[in-house]
Amino acid sequence: MTKALFHHTSLLLSTFFALLLFANCKTERSRPDISDIQLTTQIERFEVDLFSIDTTQLSSELATLRAKYPDFFALYVEQVMQFAKASDTNTYEKQLRLFTTNKDMRFLYDTTMLCYPNLKKQAQELNQAFKYFKYYFPNKQVPEKVISHISAFGPAAVTYDQSILGINLDLHLGSDFPLYPIDVFPKYMRARLTPDYLSSNAIQALLKAHFENKPPKKRLIDQMIYEGKILYLTDLLLPDVPDSIKIGYTQAELAWCEASENGIWSFLVENELLYSTKQKEIFLYTSEAPTTKGLPTEAPGRIPIWVGWKIVKEFMDNNPDISPAQLMQITNAQEILKKARYKPRRGE
What we know:
Blueprint: H1 2-5, H2 9-23, E1 43-45, H3 46-51, H4 58-68, H5 70-80, H6 89-101, H7 103-115, H8 120-136, E2 145-149, E3 157-160, E4 164-168, H9 187-190, H10 198-210, H11 220-237, H12 243-247, H13 251-259, H14 261-270, H15 279-286, H16 303-318, H17 324-329, H18 333-340
Parallel strand pairs: 1-2, 2-4
Antiparallel strand pairs: 3-4
Helix pairs in contact: 2-13, 4-5, 8-10, 10-11, 11-16, 11-18, 16-18
């Protein structure tokens, strides 16, 4: 039955795709006036300082580096690189020597510097996003420091106590960068390893630090709504970033989702997935994958997350008195689904 709901999708997709590119490449909303919010963001370049150290005087050079980046240095050696505890000086010194003198890592660093000779554009984008964050959440903290680094393809962004935002430049060097291992980054993921994704990845990491899914709920709908909230806030903080970048889909994949929305929803309902508590099943439908199991091959992965985003958007559209701060206080996913009055678009 569900399969039939996708029968006409291919006939509509080319027309819908053209409309999407023309009229819906970004999520447009009224923007608040943030001109009175005083904030200046600069990005400190940890990778430059790290790869500029004199390895003949490694101990003293690393001590100076640690003094300059006290909290981030510990985060970097312990969690980002997982070299050693910050208290284990001998081990992390050995590991950092190997890291900074390795031929491939030097190539990684050199490529990073070619791709990012400066980070002024990224600093401006993040500064505007932080201003929007302060507008919507005046009682919450924006990062005191934004620090760039490279990590041999570690997390795209990391946070420390909400006061530090670390951005990993080596996950944004371009889809054709030769050192990206194909077994770690298959084709569908490599398309996202570009500078266009840097600010979105950073902001979503910051939002998840402020609004943890803790403890994580046990049903698929709970995960859908949580991730939908994060994407909705990303809309507000990065209004100029295309929706395809925020969700990590190509424009063609996003167009397919829009054209197939009714069929997607029917698939989730008919297969009793919304309220599934099977953790393997939830993981399957919310984790990275080239496609979504049970849907046509045109469907990208993580489709339920996209649906959750749509539901949260409709919830906020249909409940204009609820602020973003109030949205994040609602922990009952069923309440959001009910009050959203979600009606999937029919592609016929």
